[in-house]
Write a structure and sequence with these properties.
Diaminopimelate Epimerase, Chain A, domain 1; four-stranded mixed β-sheet; elongated
């Protein structure tokens, strides 16, 4: 994932993944050309919209829970 972000040289390259936490609806990983981010506002909103548009269904009505990547060092 990091290599692709570096190759495209986009400021925020995102990946929607299945969640690893049971309460989450999906997991999001965000990369810059040089590092991974734990969270970023615009990618969060855009990917939530994309997930819903692609047919994602939240576990709870009217609430979408995104799992952020917190298991990395910057």
């Amino acid at each position: 994932m990091q290599a692709f972000a570096a190759w495209t040289y986009l400021l925020e390259t995102t990946y929607l993944l299945p969640p690893t936490h049971p309460a989450a609806d999906y997991r999001l990983r965000i990369f810059t050309p040089t590092k991974e981010l734990a969270f970023a506002g615009h990618p969060t909103l855009g990917n939530c919209a994309a997930w819903l548009h692609a047919g994602g269904t939240p576990h709870r009505s009217q609430i979408v829970i995104q799992e952020c990547n917190t298991s990395f060092t910057s």
